[in-house]
## 1
Amino acid sequence: MKLYRSFVQPYLFWMSILIVVPMLLIVFYAFTTSGNDIISFRFTLDNFLKFGEPIFLRVLLRSLSIALTTTVISILIGYPVAYFISQANERAQTLLILLVTIPMWINMLVRTYAWIGILSENGIINNIMTSLGLPTLNLMYTDFAVILGMVYNFLPFMILSIYTVLAKLDKALINASYDLGANKMQTFLKVVLPLSVPGIISGITLVFLPAVSTFVIPKFLGGGNYVLIGNLIETQFITVGEWNFGSAISMIMASVIMLSMFITKRFDQDIEERQSRKEVG
């Protein structure tokens, strides 16, 4: 037990410094308004009430909409890719998973900058359009560019989450389905898809949560006037200097994220309970 404590204590110490203390400061700033220094402050809820203004609510709704769209597209693309990889032989699976994860080795900022070179007015796509005698497209600083950048950056998380579940499926269940007269589509809809739902839910969590709070992708692909909730928080801390309001927004977003995690976890538990009931029945 003493040896266990000796290993745990340094971790608890650094966790307190790097996680607990910053969180306490955010809570402090969110519920206070300070003067010229941190000593002269008073408790208030004005920072949260300010977020109720229409302009900030629109930013929140837009952020949720963009993140939800990104998540849905990631599922539509990621599930077929993950299923295809899971059906390949072991050697091919290793290579395909490597191809999926290689982009993640590159810094996210660099990957986002690469899309600027592709989507900009003088980028690759518009150069191809011009060479074909077609009019150029306005791709940058649009919802399309932001969603494309988010899907590109977060899609591997969806693919890996679903693939992990599909790769562990019991082949005997699939064979049993065929033996009972089901075709490939029926087997997929009745056996494979329900059993892969936990992977989908995990992928939704890993894609939706960073998509709703990211600020790098909207900043570079959306332009300076394109504001999502992550950009709003960054502006309050770095540009405007409104740490109190920025902390309140951070707490609101933390609540949204925790609520999303609770809903997905609850949904996952309900599915597992239904499956266990079917097995018992």
Note: The longest strand covers residues 32-34.
## 2
Amino acid sequence: MAHKKLIAYTDGGARGNPGPAAFGVVIGETYMHGEYIGETTNNIAEYSGLVYALKHAKKGTDEADMAKVDLEVRMDSELIVKQMKGEYKVKNEGLKPLFLEAKKLISRFHSVSFVHIPREKNKEADAMVNKALDARAER
């Protein structure tokens, strides 16, 4: 089997920092998910979206085929992209467990690359964040 290229868009946000927070994920052409995660920081919400995407990128792929998947993660958090690429160290103690979990999940794929994109190119994942936050606020 040839390598399968998959693109995931992730985003996270907190209204107030810290404040009510959520993440949004768009994987491929069909999978979209937004989830409220409670009161936390924007960066924790961003990492939570990344970890969720790494866990769920396998939708439609057998676990045995995961080693044949080239995943490209696109996100508008320059900090997290640079941390995942090893360009910045993770100094915040609250982010370290999420960073380590993401690194562990990456090993299941043939390759994972990280691309920093402008917010305007991350509209669908951002919309999932806001949908989750708005749904929570309406309760």
Note: The first helix runs from residue 42 to 56.
